UniProtKB/TrEMBL annotation:
This is Tyrosine recombinase XerC. Gene3D superfamilies: 1.10.150.130, Intergrase catalytic core. Residues 117-317 form the Tyr recombinase domain. PROSITE patterns: CB, TYR_RECOMBINASE. GO terms for cellular component: cytoplasm. Forms a cyclic heterotetrameric complex composed of two molecules of XerC and two molecules of XerD.
Amino acid sequence: MTRNDPEDVDSTSSLPPPVEQWLDHLLHNRRYSPHTLSAYRRDLSELVALAKGRPLDQIVTGQIRQFLARLHAQGHGARSLARTLAGWRGFYKWWAPIAGLASNPTADVKAPKASRGLPKALSVDQTQALLDSPVMRAMTDPMALRDQAMFELFYSSGLRLSELVSLDIHYVQSKHYTSASWINLVDRDVHVLGKGGKRRSVPIGAQAITALNKWIEARALIAPVNPDDEDALALFIGSRGKRIHPRVVQSSLTKLATLTGLPTTIHPHVLRHSFASHVLQSAQDLRAVQEMLGHANISTTQLYTKLDFQHLSKAYDQAHPRAGRKS
């Protein structure tokens, strides 16, 4: 069963007041991204639907297990169930003390184990072919310059998609608005507010700096004229001057990959994976890559060492005369 994209969830749908209060807390106090909040809203909507009118403060551990079993029977996989349970657990961890619940009904429920696949990454040659595509280089219209800058920055700094679209053209702090993420071309770095409200700064490479300067010059032609409009601060905007939507980024990258002739479907996150894999292959500094990616747990970053070993193992099997191939 394929879960709906969080962007497709109706963000205006009403949930019980405690749930709405928790989501509001995540938005304003934890600064969670709209994408993450939409996912949590969907997870809690499922909990409410499964409860069938039973108040959330009356749900017990056994029912949580039953709800997960029901979702599994509907076709939800282990990874999907684990993430759903994490959403429920986060809500009850916050709400149980406030509501005076005797216990958190999700506390003793174990998430099903999901096999952890290796992240997909392009080879260095594939990445170069994508970013140096003659088709892209030949185009000089603002949208093409924007796409070039976006993808160069993606690969240069290993950003998440949500982080990229949230970037402002520079830091702004006023009575009505404060930048959460921005670029600094003078210091050649990007400042982002990542998952869990974790802030980090990552260098921007020379190729990305060049592409960004070209885009910023062209951006002035379509930027909103109202300086108080938050879209006027967005680094990446569409043809109508509004902050770019994640789906537009995906669509633009898919189009470029097709024109370049790459044999695989490329999601924006693949550029983040490619950044991590290529930097790790060259620098062999796991902690530095962890910091640049904004991973809370180094075990997540260690997946890229497995990816690198997988590549070396394949090359060994193909090249070594005594690697085990039948003669």
